[in-house]
Amino acid sequence: MSSSGIGGYLRHVDGLRGVSVLLVVLYHAWPDTVPGGFIGVDVFFVISGFLITRLLLAERAAGTLSYRGFLMRRVRRLWPSFALVLAFTLLLGWVLLGPTALADLGRSSVAAIGLSSNWYFALTTDYFNVGLEQNFLLHSWSLAVEEQFYLVYPLVLIWAARFGKGVEVLLGALWITSFAGVLFIGGTNAAFFATQLRVWELASGALLWCAFERGAVARLSEVQVRWLGRLGVAIIVLTAFLMPRLVWWPSVLALVPVIGALLCIAFPSRGLAARWLVGLGLISYALYLWHWPILKGVDILWPGPPDGVLVMMILLSIGLAWLAWRYIEEPIRRRRRLEKPAAMLGVAGLSSLMLGMLGWQYHVQGGFPGRFSQDINAIAATASDLRADSLDCKNGLKPLADMLGFPAEREPVAPPGQRIAICVSKDYSADAPSVLYVGDSHLGAIRGELSVRASERGTRAIFVTLAACPPVLGVVWEWEGVDRAERCQRLQKLVLDVVKTGQIDKMVLVAHWDIYGGNTPTRHPEFGAHFSRLVDTVADQTDLHIMLDVPTHDFDIRAALIREVKLPWLRAPGWLVRARHEQVRAPYLELMRAAEQRGALTLHDPVPAFCPEEICIVQTDAGVLYVDGSHVSLAGARFVLDAVPNLPH
Questions:
Q1: What is the edge-to-edge ordering of all strands in the sheet holding 421-425?
Q2: What's the longest Cα–Cα distance across the chain?
Q3: Which of 591, 518, 572 lies closest to 550 in space, CA to CA?
Q4: Which among 342, 386, 438, 444 has most CB atoms closer than 10 A?
Q5: Contact present, 146 and 140 (Cβ < 8 Å)
Q6: How confident is the model at residue 3, as a pLDDT?
């Protein structure tokens, strides 16, 4: 098979686009069923690298390559549908989103217009960004990556093409550098959005075209080509359906769908040329744009919608995508409308300015809280307990080691949201007992109120927190990334060393136990063994206390309450019932109660207060108890501690 076999219109590549967008849509609709559907974006990157390199090198060979012309074609291809969806999204946000989420949407819209939304999400997303999943433009990050690629790559390619095999050398260097970044700095929330960690996927497609140009792809029989193409499709589809539910990305595992994409492109399969798949491929860009805000909008109106509703929304997205492709994308791309470049740029520039100004106003006005009643604004203003006036906080384990006389090396600075926080209550008696609190973000949610109460009693309270790090040695989420996992392990080990000194009178563990040891997909397979080992280790060293988890909901509590007040005629949210929470926590609760019965620890359970009857409460006269589905608010922190009065503080 030579390069001539991959020339002309590549129908099978449009079919591959159809597979990719379908996987992404299915993932966003049913993430538990298609846990790896997000790899469709990785496949898109490979396709883009291949097609853009093919186009640029062909134009260079023909002497028609123009950087300005290339960018103009990108504007015609990408901007019309994006501007339409962006306008729809800003309107949808005005109708459905609360002030905080609308302000976030405004900021992200400005970033999207500025071709940098991936960096906006990389810098703003962390464990506590509860409004992120409500952002109707979250999916624009991948468009920003491609747009940045389109701006830089043609210039670099034109330069490299002057030197013999310069293109291959350049692409090889980019591939190695980018993939090395995946190995060494991948696996964080920010890394998922980082352009430099996606370049190798684009370069993979580009290198495939170079291989065809050089005749480096072997000639194969029609049967061999067909089976290799089928193998590529099978790799992509199986990866999407068999991907572990929790996996950090991008990682070395991304090689699998990339190889599948390369096989699909290099060896055309008849299956990919199917009419319905090619049709999806032709509208894939518009479908990618439309499906996310529609699915998120429905999720706000109807948390946990039934499958039938999701199917209807997907069909609606396909219909809108076809209309946009048929009556907006194609006429403008083929210059049947806005034929002159000046007209096209004028409309694109003016619409960008207008939409950008609207998004900026969303941000400046704080999401326009005046749109809502006082009741809705009170719900939207529910905040986490971030009080720090009674605490002295530092980052890293060294402050804790220094405080208690341990040698410890200074750690590299971790990204925001991934830092170990060591806090000590400011006001305590010299002879006061020391209470060590260790936990994840659920401890962070009540730390402020705990410190206030500890100071009132004169207790020396020491808080050690790291988000998504269970306070049980050996229980680590590898999917959070290698660096974060190692940080968590160092924290777990140092805490045990501290306890063994005898300087800690009481130790309190506070964590999101449901996701570590409950009946959940994230449960650690050896949680029980590691927990028992921890209890045996510290039983004779300190007085061990454990605060059980607060009830966890599957949706944002504040958004659901706002929807209930604003749109009371809609279906009521599916509030958590106690029986369901008891089922989730049954495995670890049985283990912990057994340890309590033998006198190894003391349990403190807030659930009876949160679930006094069948349906668990989410607000009281004091305010809303949650800031999302599981982290309590300032009012919630007070409610929790009132519910467990014997918790040491």
A1: 391-395, 421-425, 460-465, 434-439, 506-510, 543-547, 602-604
A2: 84
A3: 518
A4: 438
A5: no
A6: 39
pLDDT of residue 127: 34
Query: Which amino acid belongs to residue 254?
Result: A
pLDDT at 128: 34
CA–chain centroid gap for 175, Å, is: 24
Tell me the C-alpha distance between 364 and 571, whole Å: 33
Residue that has been written with the tokens 């960096």 in this structure: 119
The answer to whether 490 and 464 have CB atoms below 8 angstroms apart is: no
Look at residue 461 in the predicted model and tell me its pLDDT. Answer: 86
Summarize pLDDT for 533-546 with one digit per residue, the tens.
999 988 888 899 99
424: phi then psi, degrees, rounded to nearest 5: -130, 135
Question: Quick check: 565 and 379 in contact, CB under 8 A?
Answer: yes
d(CA 247, CA 253): 9
| Cis peptide upstream of residue 250 (ω within 30 degrees of 0) | yes
Residue with tokens 């090396």: 409
- How far apart are alpha carbons 603 and 648 in whole angstroms? 11
Strand (E) or helix (H) holding 545: strand 543-547
Measured in residues, the chain has a length of: 649
How far apart (Å, rounded) are the C-alpha atoms in residues 444 and 615? 26
Orientation angle between helical segments 284-301 and 275-282, nearest 10 degrees: 80
Looking at residue 21, its pLDDT comes to 97
The amino acid occupying position 107 is: R
Amino acid in the structure at residue 373: S
Residue 477: its pLDDT value, please?
66
Distance of CA 418 to the CA centre of its chain: 14
How many Å separate Cα 456 from the centre of its chain? 39
**Judging by beta carbons within 10 Å of its beta carbon (0-12, 13-18, 19+), is residue 441 exposed, middle or buried?**
buried
Q: CA nearest 304: which of 579, 580, 582, 91?
A: 580
Q: Judge whether 604 and 545 are in contact, CB under 8 Å.
A: yes
Which residue pairs, CB below 8 angstroms and at least 24 apart, start in 22-27? Answer: 22/280, 23/236, 23/237, 23/240, 24/288, 24/291, 25/287, 25/291, 25/314, 25/317, 26/240, 27/240
- State how far the Cα of 101 lies from the Cα of 103, in Å rounded to an integer: 5
- Report whether 281 contacts 18 (CB < 8 A): yes
Residues 422 and 360 sit within 8 Å (Cβ to Cβ): no
What pLDDT does 474 receive? 87
Which contiguous run of DSSP H or E holds residue 434? Answer: strand 434-439
Q: Is the full-model pTM beyond 0.90? A: no
Reduce the DSSP state of residue 462 to 3 states and report it: strand
Cα separation, 360 vs 106, in Å, equals 6
Work out the end-to-end distance of the chain between its first and last CA atoms, rounded to an integer number of angstroms. Answer: 74
CA 540 and chain centroid, separation? 41
With beta carbons less than 8 A apart as the criterion, state whether 18 and 284 touch.
Answer: yes
